[in-house]
């Protein structure tokens, strides 16, 4: 098994996280925040646009079962 990691950001991570967790070949999906200028931001602060962060997913996947391009197509 060969794994790679993709970071995907663009809107609310809750709905997108559920889709990726069900894909064959996806090993783990972690939600979090990227960028920004505030240490340890809260969900409310990020959604309010005050921190400069984006909601993101860290997706670890098996490249023998799913391709990076497939992840982008689904995203």
Can you describe what's shown?
The protein is of the alpha+beta class and 75 residues long. The chain has one domain. It is 28% helix and 36% strand. It has three helices and three strands; from the N terminus they run E-H-E-H-E-H. Strands 1-3-2 form a three-stranded antiparallel beta sheet, covered by helices on one side. This is peptide-methionine (S)-S-oxide reductase. It is an enzyme of class 1 (oxidoreductase). GO terms for molecular function: peptide-methionine (S)-S-oxide reductase activity. Residues 5-75 form the Peptide methionine sulphoxide reductase MsrA domain.
Layout of strands and helices, then pairs:
Layout: E1 3-9, H1 13-21, E2 26-35, H2 43-47, E3 53-62, H3 68-74
Antiparallel strand pairs: 1-3, 2-3
DSSP summary, beta strand count: 3
Largest sheet: 3 strands, antiparallel
User: What is the overall pLDDT average?
Assistant: 92
Strand fraction equals 35-45%
Question: How many discrete domains?
Answer: 1
> Rg, please?
13 Å
Number of helices: 3
Amino- and carboxy-terminal Cα gap: 23 Å
Rough shape?
Answer: elongated
Question: Which class best fits the helix and strand makeup?
Answer: alpha+beta
SSE string, helices as H and strands as E: EHEHEH
- How helix-rich are the residues, as a percent range? 25-40%
- Cross-sheet strand order for the largest sheet: 1-3-2
Q: Indicate the low-confidence ranges by residue numbers.
A: none
EC number: 1.8.4.11
GO molecular function, one term: peptide-methionine (S)-S-oxide reductase activity
Keywords: Oxidoreductase
InterPro entries: Met_Sox_Rdtase_MsrA_dom (IPR002569), Met_Sox_Rdtase_MsrA_sf (IPR036509)
């Amino acid at each position: 098994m060969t794994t790679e990691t993709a970071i995907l950001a663009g809107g609310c991570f809750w709905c997108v996280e559920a889709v990726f967790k069900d894909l064959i070949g996806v090993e783990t999906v972690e939600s979090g925040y990227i960028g920004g200028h505030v240490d340890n931001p809260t969900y409310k602060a990020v959604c309010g646009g005050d921190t400069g962060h984006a909601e993101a997913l860290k997706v670890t996947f098996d490249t023998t079962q799913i391709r990076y391009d497939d992840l982008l197509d689904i995203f």
